[in-house]
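Re: that chain you flagged

S.,

Sorry for the slow reply, it's been a week of failed gels. I finally had a moment to sit down with the sequence you sent. For the record, here it is as I used it:
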Amino acid sequence: MSDIILITGATGNVGRELVSLLHKSGQPIRAAVVSEAEAASLPPDVPWCVFDFTNPRTFPAAFAGVDRLFLMRPPHLSNIQRDIKPAIEFAAQSNVRQIVFLSLLGAERNPVVPHAKVETLLQKGAVPYTLLRCGFFMQNLSTTHRDDIRAANDIFIPAGMGKTAFIDVRDIAAVATKVLTEPGHEYKAYALTGSEALNYQEVAQLMTAVLKRPITYSRPSLVRFAWRKWRAGWPAAYVGVVSGIYLTTQLGLAQEITEDVPALLGRPPLTMRQFVRDHAAVWETEPASSINAHNMKEVLS
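Prediction finished late last night. Pasting the structure tokens below so you have them in one place:
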């Protein structure tokens, strides 16, 4: 058995950062992508393989020599027994010794979400696991909701005045790197959030200050949000998932602040202000475009 870490979702928000951190450290990795075209977005010297959860023929090459797996559920796969379980079982048969799963904050209390079903599979399975239960990604503002901010100077999100303990995916990737490369994290679950809970009005005010132009929060209803995004070309299932996640924010279920990030990393989490400063260029005004496949790699964690 070699020391290879297989990274699914390798070109997504978290996966891209994780690939970079592990590769720079000299850790042997293999980036799982859906096509050769997607592999073109990886650093040129990163080993990669074509991998499809729904195509078992891609499993043998992907898992050859793999010691650990970073598991990210593709957002369009919600039938976990049919679409995710075969890969988890193949990992066990391949003697993978750890699976680190990118889960959702509160998944253990919400059996309806697909993340909870994956957690149950792992808990019942034969491979030691680590669960990273993450809050909402700050990067959703620079990917999924980028065009509304860039073209209309508006955060068009149906979250009411609920607060969110946002987390930067760079912190998630740093935690994932730690739990994948050092012992002692098997059979543990970590709740990962930032250090502050903000509503989107506060986020708009912060973006206004950093970007030096007025950014508003229009606070649309769930119906208005769903209708506009469906008209813009978002798949109906994706609209439903995103709307449901923001409903949890409206209900005050996304504001929990935890201490696992500073405990694991030995430093405070990155702040929303730092995130906006670092990503300011992505909101520079230019014509809007509908959400693309890269934006949909991960759905709001």
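What I noticed first: The domain at 138-164+195-255+268-297 is CATH 3.90.25.10 (UDP-galactose 4-epimerase; domain 1).

Talk soon,
D.
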